[in-house]
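User: Sequence recovery, please. Input:
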């Protein structure tokens, strides 16, 4: 059984939220109250106490370094382009997942409707659950716009399967996210599209692999990097785990925001 110790702070709250999402229990904060059992233990002098204090400090440092909210420069408007190497690899699913992730990173995002068939199908299917707002529509709480406005500071464009005419705008985004599969008949298409995109020179490019295992990921990394395997998440309307996006997307966001 693992026990995570950390003092009360915004960083600790964020870190513990992530751990709780992963079904980790034993999350304890030290209130500083001398009557608190944990406080009393930490005020002792034995080796076990010092070890607990070291664990507490390490957890806090990890929270500050890895889980602290992204520092978004004033006036920054982020463009994220999502496209698939071929049909049915989860492109729209990843566009929605990135929408949730950007929201948790501190952005006020919207999905930008580029008229792609996949998003149109979603809008048609959930028409009765669509609410029209002043500058956007909301489908089950997800904000979707036809044009940019001052109301949002991040836009996710779902290009569907990447066709030749969309390569330039896809690569012109601040962050380009290519979604691919790892089945034998999908890999050649992924390699070809990835090479085409790289020739165009995207600002920041990451490849997300749907339905991939660890062995698949190691094989694909030989010719596509950076890349990450995304877990299956059937409910696009609700946030899933942040783990993959923190590993694969957060470094690019930090560079875009001038933090690296």
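Assistant: Recovered sequence (260 residues):
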């Amino acid at each position: 059984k693992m026990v995570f110790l950390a003092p009360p702070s915004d960083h600790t709250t964020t870190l513990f939220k992530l751990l709780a999402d992963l079904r980790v229990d034993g999350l304890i904060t030290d209130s500083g109250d001398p009557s608190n059992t944990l406080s009393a233990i930490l005020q002792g002098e034995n080796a076990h106490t010092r070890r607990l204090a070291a664990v507490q400090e390490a957890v806090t440092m990890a929270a500050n370094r890895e889980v602290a909210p992204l520092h978004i420069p004033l006036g920054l408007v982020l463009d994220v382009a999502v496209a698939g190497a071929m049909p049915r690899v989860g492109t729209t699913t990843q566009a929605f997942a990135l929408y949730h992730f950007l929201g948790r990173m501190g952005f006020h995002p919207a999905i930008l409707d580029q008229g792609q068939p996949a998003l149109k199908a979603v809008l048609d299917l959930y028409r009765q659950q669509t609410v029209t707002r002043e500058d956007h529509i909301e489908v089950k709480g997800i904000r979707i716009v036809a044009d940019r406005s001052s109301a949002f500071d991040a836009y996710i464009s779902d290009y569907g399967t990447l066709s030749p005419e969309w390569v330039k705008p896809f690569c012109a985004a601040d962050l380009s996210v290519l979604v691919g599969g790892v089945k034998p008949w999908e890999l050649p298409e992924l390699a070809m599209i990835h090479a085409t995109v790289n020739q165009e020179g995207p600002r920041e490019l990451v490849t997300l692999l749907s339905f991939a295992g660890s062995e698949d990921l190691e094989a694909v990394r030989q010719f596509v990097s950076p890349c990450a395997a995304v877990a299956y998440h059937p409910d696009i309307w609700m946030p899933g785990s942040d783990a993959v996006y923190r590993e694969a997307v957060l470094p690019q966001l930090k560079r875009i925001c001038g933090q690296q």
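The longest helix spans residues 47-67.
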